[in-house]
Amino acid sequence: MNPISGKPEPYQAFTEKYSRLLVSASGIFFMILVVIAAVFGIVIYRVITVSTFAAFGWALIRNNSQVATTGTAVCINFCVIMLLNVLYEKVALLLTNLEQPRTESEWENSFTFKMFLFQFVNLNSSTFYIAFFLGRFTGRPGAYLRLINRWKLEECHPSGCLIDLCMQMGIIMVLKQTWNNVMELGYPLIQNWWTRRRLKREHSHISKSSFPQWERDYNLQPMNANGLFDEYLEMILQFGFTTIFVAAFPLAPLLALLNNIIEIRLDAYKFVTQWRRPLPSQAKDIGIWYGILEGIGILSVITNAFVIAVTSDFIPRLVYAYKYGPCAGQGRAGEGCMMGYVNASLSVFRVSDFEMRSQPRTNGSEMFEEAVKYCRYRDYREPPDSAEPYSYTLQFWHVLAARLAFIIVFEHMVFAIKTLIAYLIPDLPKDLRDRMRREKYLIQETMYEAELERLQKERNEKRRKKERTHHKEWP
Questions:
Q1: Number of domains forming the structure of the chain
Q2: Which terminal Cβ of the chain has fewer Cβ within 10 Å, N or C?
Q3: Which of 268, 280, 195, 272 is nearest to 231 (CA)?
Q4: Count of other CB atoms within 10 angstroms of residue 21
Q5: Would you list the DSSP string of 327-370?
Q6: Is 52 a member of any domain?
Q7: Nearest-angstrom CA–CA distance, 326 and 339
Q8: What digits encode the pLDDT tens for the residues 400-415?
Q9: Which residues of the chain have a pLDDT value below 50?
């Protein structure tokens, strides 16, 4: 029995409700593990393929083995993403119905959160791997970490991990937007063509123009069961993909803008000519999407701080300019202060310290006229002749401290600016807020006057009853 309305309503026991939520959460966790497993499969493909392409017979592939590996891996990853998206919608629907939400809005919020979480993790997991994990755990020359004690883990492009990240984001963004637009317009076009063909075969004696307008409209495709949910989901995922790694791929907002300009016209054509007229329904706001947008905004600040500090060379260059370069100690970083940076960012390795499996095939005498004894690699490590060979140098710890300090300062500064702008720019304009307050005041006045009038009527009614009783007692 509802204590507020006093009416009976469906009730779910505490143990049953939370057992269903536990099963649903376990399903969500399992599907996220499936995504991680798919990413791990792509990682294994990249590890195996990069060594295969490096020994390829075709010189073009052999000389660009890193780019070829990244390009093919991204295309395979895109196919996996699109296949898993089909599965996720069915799983999200099953888990939401399993929870048995009490109201329709609770059902919509639960389904929306699951669909967004599944597709967001599916779309961005490989991007997070490239941005923050690729090349971080490969070891060093002479002590490489290997997969199944055989394949060396993949490293970043010699120019840095930003190239791989840009390629990953660019290919996936272009392919996904193109695929979505083709499917959104192509599917109803094909369905309507097939319906017209079937009707023409069934009613060959009746011309198309003789059908009334309402019947022609009815023969169009019905709007999908989720309404505008798919449109919202596409825009939110695009917003997340555009903002989370915008520091690594600044072209993403431009591609999103061009896509949205095209999609506005495609959606208009689809709604007007290919779909039946949708039934309007009122909504108070955009619901749980607002909280999701807030979460993406916070996550984008954190990830961009890490991209600038960890993935790019911005902090190492800054540390070199102020601490180790020609301008060290002068408090400035102008022209010429980066002289020698490349040399300082490379460590020295003795060729004789290679593992047996990594020994070079030649000693380099045919190219340099003498045997190569030392080579260079990107890292901050001590030379082989030092007291602690191949240990991290002091510059490494300076760069690490500067990266952590930059992340903290950048996040706090951006969040402070965001809070200040949110305070200075109200959610509602002042005149609209005043009108809402005025409307609320008038409603309260009307209710007060109506209540006062009701009380006066009751008082007058009681007085008349009392007078009639008095007259009956004293005729």
A1: 3
A2: C
A3: 268
A4: 15
A5: TTTTT---TTTTTTHHHHTEEEEEGGGS-GGG--SS-SHHHHSS
A6: yes
A7: 7
A8: 999 999 999 999 999 9
A9: none
